[in-house]
Fold NapC/NirT cytochrome c N-terminal domain-containing protein.
Amino acid sequence: METILDVLAIFVLIVEVILLYQLRANRHELSAKVRSMVLFGIIVFPLLALLLGNYHVFVSTKESTACQSCHVMAPMANDMMFDSKSQTLASRHYQNGWIAEHECYSCHADYGFQGTMKAKLDGYRHLMRYVTKTYTEPIRYRGEFNSMNCYGCHQGSRTFEAVDEHAPVVENLLGDDPSISCLNCHGRAHPEPSKRTPGSKEYKWLSDPKVKEVVNAQEVKDYINTLAASAEQSK
């Protein structure tokens, strides 16, 4: 589906260029043919290109590499992908392979370009603040994490259902109680702000942009497993 839409976007671009060239060549005429070219070249195809472009953005933001492309997100990505000793929820899920792909999107499905209209607007606002360099570090999420994102994966699993303490929590989650959060018992999802503050001893490593070079998440997992095996052999 994505490949078809990519081809369609290229086709729209080519046709748009041809139409604009033809309009320029016939700019002194006002025939039915020219009016049709105006309709498609200035209204229809630009709108279609806008829709295809936005769809491509929505799809591409499911990839964790999209989150990693921003410098301010490097601490979260490095902690998740490279720190095998980290006890953050993101790192534990990644290191244990509990999420096969779209690691960031799987936990933040209600956020950013993929979420509700409010979330999409927040995503655009964050993008603009990043591009215009009007943010400060450490960045902080002003909203609340939706624990239903966790429940969406854990619902029905035997290990989750076997914990008696989960029963009243689930009742509150289904009752839309914002005071209940999985993070209350299971700890932070990402490194705390103090570690992501410029000048802290952890900041330099966490902010290392090397993670941007990673394309295949499985390669990173294999690399970490290799390091762990080497460390085990050296004992």
About this structure: The chain has 13 helices and no strands. The two ends are 50 Å apart (CA to CA).
